[in-house]
Amino acid sequence: VYLNLKEPVFHQIMYGTLVSIIVLRSVYIVLWVYPWLRGLGYTSLTVFLMGFFLWNVDNIFCDKLRALREKMPPVVGAVTQFHAWWHILTGLGSYLHILLSLYTRTLFLKHRPKVKFVFGIWPILLVEPPKKL
């Protein structure tokens, strides 16, 4: 749809470039700067890439998926809206990446960050000021 229009293609390329830079920065941080954060870094990347994968499946097989959804019960059809999953998973992956970035920044500033889980599932960052000597 967008291939005939110059401006949307430019925006898609710039978005892809930005995402690539962010991914490379994250890989650098978790491999060389703060290797103990690999779990959080890889989780955010995996969740984001799962959304990207589902979005591409939806783009490639859109007509077939639409025809298949018409034959399914409405609840199953709603769950197979992979474009919607793209938004959910990239939003979650982005949140986790922001959490990783905040964690690394507070470490750099000599604060004491801790990841806590609200209701055992939702990660948040708690930051304690640096210890005074």
TrEMBL record:
Molecular function (Gene Ontology), one example: N-acylsphingosine amidohydrolase activity
Domain of life: Eukaryota
Enzyme class: hydrolase
Cofactor: Zn(2+)
Catalytic activity: an N-acylsphing-4-enine + H2O = sphing-4-enine + a fatty acid; an N-acylsphinganine + H2O = sphinganine + a fatty acid; N-(9Z-octadecenoyl)-sphing-4-enine + H2O = sphing-4-enine + (9Z)-octadecenoate
GO biological process, one term: phytosphingosine biosynthetic process
Membrane topology: Multi-pass membrane protein
Pathway the protein takes part in: Lipid metabolism; sphingolipid metabolism; Sphingolipid metabolism
Keyword set, alphabetical order: Hydrolase, Lipid metabolism, Membrane, Metal-binding, Sphingolipid metabolism, Transmembrane, Transmembrane helix, Zinc
InterPro entries reported in the protein's UniProt record: ACER
Subcellular localization: Membrane
EC number of this enzyme: 3.5.1.-
Residues annotated as binding Zn(2+): 83, 87
Stretches that traverse the bilayer: 12-33, 40-57, 84-104
A Pfam short name: Ceramidase
GO cellular component annotations of the record: endoplasmic reticulum membrane
Family the entry assigns: Belongs to the alkaline ceramidase family.
Described function: Hydrolyzes the sphingolipid ceramide into sphingosine and free fatty acid.
PANTHER family assigned to the protein according to its UniProt record, in alphabetical order: ALKALINE CERAMIDASE 3
Name of this chain's protein: Alkaline ceramidase
The species this protein was found in: Chlamydotis macqueenii (Macqueen's bustard)
